[in-house]
Amino acid sequence: MHWLTTALIPAAALLWDPVAGDPTPKYNPLPPLREQARIQDAWTAERKAGIPALLKRHGVDAWVVSQREYAEETVFWSFKPASTFSARRRTTCLFLAEPLAANSSSSSSSPSSEGALPRQPGCIVGWTADVWETLKAQLEAADPATIAIDAHPEIAFASGLHAGEYQAMANGLGGAWASRMVVKPEIAVEFIATQPRSRLPRYREVMETAWAMIARGFSEAVVVPGKTSTEDLEWWFREEILAHNFTTWFQPSVSVVDQTLPWDAKTETQTETGAAEGVGGRVIEYGDMLHVDFGLTAMGLNTDTQHLGYVLRPGEEDVPQGLKDGLKKGNRLQDIVRRNIAVGKTGNEMLKASLGEMHAEGIQGRVYTHPIGDWGHSAGPLIGMTNMQEYVPASGELVAVRNMWFSVELLVEHYVPERNQTLWFALEEDVYWAGEEKGWQWVYGRQEEFHLVKAVKRQETMEEL
Asked: Signal sequence: where (predicted)?
């Protein structure tokens, strides 16, 4: 027998749709799919126009990106047309620092290109050895001294060339051309990391929608203390995302904050306080501090947000001061990290500077900030990891570049006198490059006040389905 307890997630919350006049943040609907594709392709054209300068900056003459259907290079997803859902057959793309003359017979796509990438001149699509013959002709016309390939052993965004595809390409082109191939991870990383300015207005709208969904979820319209569990709320977020035609890149995570750090796996079915934490999650009660990790995906854009909420007790009108102070301390660490993000600095240098200021101010916390944009955990320098607070190998040695976005993710620990406990306050907000003088700024804003679940009287009902 299947049944629905409306007290778990109120029916009104499942059917809710924003209307004009609602306070900000608001839900921003996505455009029709055809319009989405037009917008995305314009972004891609803007980004691809910068490839020659990118290659010159890193001292290479050419860049080859080669893949087969369902075995695409990571960078493929950042330059494909919006209406292309995978590579076709074998799709091999050549980008040059100095494009070939327009009248060159080797400067356009192969006749076998079958329309898989119609806006990608220099991409060859085929199945037989003709692909390599066409690519060889293009290389002979350009005669690049160095050819970058994406085969780095550690950096995912620059290691998309499959081993078998590399072998086929080297065999097909011959040793003379294979000897000119070099691994330059900065090329794929910076291509993915650098965001066209025209993307920002839409990204801000997606971010505002993420804020609006969190505000809705962390409210009395959705949460019923004593009934709604953290897992109920996680799945409410999933349904809300789907209802508004967005997707996500990870399962939303909702927690009741206690003294246990969020990354310490809870294998027991009971918490230290005895509250049920096993299958179904933990039931949310009056006086709980809530945490959510939440992201939206739309039009090739990804957000990553962590906010805090508080469940008011009956008769309680505000959040306890100790919790407010913890949030304020988290805001201070956000200021520190955001200010230390700098063009040309490695992730490890930015981590060291941020932690130095954090410790000097007596803040106990951790920094694990990452790039965002095309991917939730996108290309570029990692500024710490939860278990690496001194040095991050490989990705920590990459540098920040102009026009990239970061997700400022961190945590502080703060003693709360009202509870006689030290609790964790995990926050996350995304930032964009605002120019040399302003540096990185919040895409939509940052949380400075708790979301409130107000105490209300309800009439609980149960319906048979």
From this structure: 1-21
Give yes or no: residues 176 and 210 share one domain: no
What is residue 118's predicted lDDT score, i.e. its pLDDT? Answer: 30
For position 412, which CATH number holds? 3.90.230.10
Residue 148 one-letter amino acid: A
pTM of the model: 0.88
Domain that holds residue 433: 3-30+197-464
Indicate which CATH number applies to the domain containing 174.
3.40.350
- Is-contact 294 214, C-beta < 8 A? yes
CA separation (Å) from 105 to 69, 102, 109? 27, 8, 10
Q: Could you tell me if 278 and 401 lie in one domain?
A: yes
Same domain for 356 and 284: yes
The model's pLDDT over 60-96, given as tens digits with 9 standing for 90+, comes to: 999 999 999 999 999 999 999 999 999 999 999 999 9
Which has the closest alpha carbon to 337: 422, 400, 246? 400
Q: Is-contact 32 127, C-beta < 8 A?
A: no
Q: Are 439 and 339 in contact (CB under 8 A)?
A: yes
What's the CA gap between 145 and 221, in Å, rounded? Answer: 63
Q: Tell me 127's DSSP state.
A: S
Q: 299 and 238 in one domain? A: yes
Tokens standing for 369?
């900030």
Give the number of domains in the chain. Answer: 2
Judged against a pLDDT cut of 80, whether residue 18 lies above it is answered with: no
From 166, 193, 220, the end of a domain falls on 193
Sign of CA dihedral 166, 168, 173, 175: positive
Same domain, 39 and 170: yes
Both 63 and 184 in a single domain?
yes
User: 369-404, pLDDT tens digit by residue?
Assistant: 999 999 999 999 999 999 999 999 999 999 999 999
Q: What is the pLDDT of residue 99?
A: 77
Question: pLDDT-based confidence at 279, cuts 50/70/90?
Answer: low
**Among residues 177, 193, 209, which one ends one of the domains?**
193
**Contact assessment for residue 427 and residue 308, using Cβ atoms and an 8 Å cutoff:** yes
**How many residues appear in the chain?**
465
**Claim to verify: residue 189 and residue 204 sit in the same structural domain:** no
The pairs formed by 417-424 with CB atoms below 8 angstroms and a separation of 24 or more are 417/322, 418/320, 418/321, 418/322, 418/323, 419/320, 419/322, 421/258, 421/259, 422/259, 423/257, 423/258, 423/259, 423/289, 423/323, 423/326, 424/257, 424/259, 424/261, 424/262
In angstroms, rounded to a whole number, what is the distance separating the alpha carbons of residues 193 and 426? 25
**Residues whose CB is less than 8 angstroms from the CB of residue 19 and which lie 6 or more positions away in sequence, other chains included:** none
- Encode burial over 258-288: b for 16+ CB neighbours within 10 A, e otherwise: bebebeeeeeeeebeeeeebeeebbbbeeeb
- Average pLDDT over all residues of the chain: 88
Let me know whether 214 and 148 are in one domain: no
